[in-house]
Every structure is written in C-alpha cells, then in structure tokens.
Design goal:
This protein is of the alpha+beta class and about 180 residues long. The protein is about 30% helix and about 35% strand. It is built from six helices and eight strands, in the order ββαααβββαβαββα. An eight-stranded mixed beta sheet has the order 1-2-3-4-5-6-8-7, sandwiched between helices. A hairpin with a 3-residue loop joins β1 (about 10) and β2.
Length: about 180
C-alpha cells in the first residue's frame, strides 16, 4: 500500500492518524480502490463510491478546511472511525468537532472518550483554535455525555437544523473556549 507522511497522535489503545486536505487528495488520486477502502476502514463499495463523490465535489473551500484523525486500533491496525474538525474556519480560529465510529461493534468501548481529549488538545495547541464547537442531536445521549465530559458549555438549540432520515432534526450547540480549556 502507498504510504503517507502525517502526524500520528497516541493514546493508550489508539493511533490517531492525521488527515488533511492534502493527504486526502493524495489518497483519493494515487491509491487503488482496495487501498482507499483499507485506508478509510470501509467495508463496502457503496461507501467507496460515496467517498469518491465527496472528493469530486470538493471537501474544502475558501476560508474553510478540515483536519481529522483516523482512529486506528494499535493491537490490529484496524480503522475504527474518525475524530476531528470537519468544519475549520482558520481566519476565525474556530472549528466544529465531529466523530464517527465505522461500526456499532466499536461503540460503548470508550474509544471516543479516549480520542477526544487528544484531538481537543491538538486543536488548541497545534491548530491554535480559540473556539471548538459541537453540534449534537438532543436524542444522542452518548454524544451529549462525551461533550459534557470534555467541558463543553451548552449555548442553545438550533431548531430544524439538519436532515436525518427525511426529517428535520434539532441540534444543541456547545462550545469550548481556549481560556476554559487552559483552566
């Protein structure tokens, strides 16, 4: 498989492999389909085709970027999901944190609880963020618990904010500021 130079963060059980627009473009343009699936931890060709479509449509635009980390289990090199900043406004020093596990089998094992503090630290100390935002469904109890556990402050409710399963759902907006993190 092709190799990439990227930042690797370490937690007890995980390697957090950095994904930037540059590495993303290199993977999508230089890797074979089987390598792309392995790199992202994809199981199906449908997932691959969806990722190719995202790449063709562009993942960045002027003033906005992303930086996330693949969660790679140290014991078997399996990609479990990702955690990072899918919406990063560099000029304003703020980003929205997001996270996904690729399979239900990885849930309730503490992987995100382990990864998120390191990703938050990276956001403030390396990316020089002043504000990290999180948008969470009021019905997503595990995510609400994670965000609260990491010191985020609830700011309000965004009504009918996103489409999920052909239904408009609300989001609770949370933030964590640099000065709060430093305390």
């Amino acid at each position: 498989m092709n190799t990439l130079q990227s930042t690797i963060l370490h937690t007890e059980r995980l390697l957090l492999r950095e994904m930037t627009p540059e590495t993303y473009n290199k993977v999508m343009s230089q890797f074979m389909d089987s390598e792309i699936k392995t790199f992202f931890g994809m199981k199906t060709n449908e997932e691959l085709e969806l990722e190719k479509l995202r790449h063709q449509q562009g993942m960045t635009m002027s003033g906005k970027s992303f930086l996330y980390f693949h969660l790679v289990e140290k014991s078997n090199n399996q990609v479990l999901g990702w955690c990072g900043y899918h919406t990063w406004f560099k000029l304003h020093r703020r980003a929205e944190i997001g996270y996904v596990l690729n399979d239900d089998a990885y849930k309730r094992k503490g992987y995100m609880k382990e990864a998120i503090p390191e990703v938050i630290r990276y956001g403030f100390e390396v990316m020089h963020l002043n504000r990290i935002e999180a948008l969470v469904s009021p019905d997503n109890k595990p995510s609400l618990k994670l965000i609260n556990h990491n010191g985020f402050t609830r700011e309000g409710l965004l009504r009918e904010h996103y489409m999920s399963k052909n239904k408009l759902d609300d989001s609770i907006i949370f933030s964590l500021l640099l000065r709060e993190y430093q305390k």
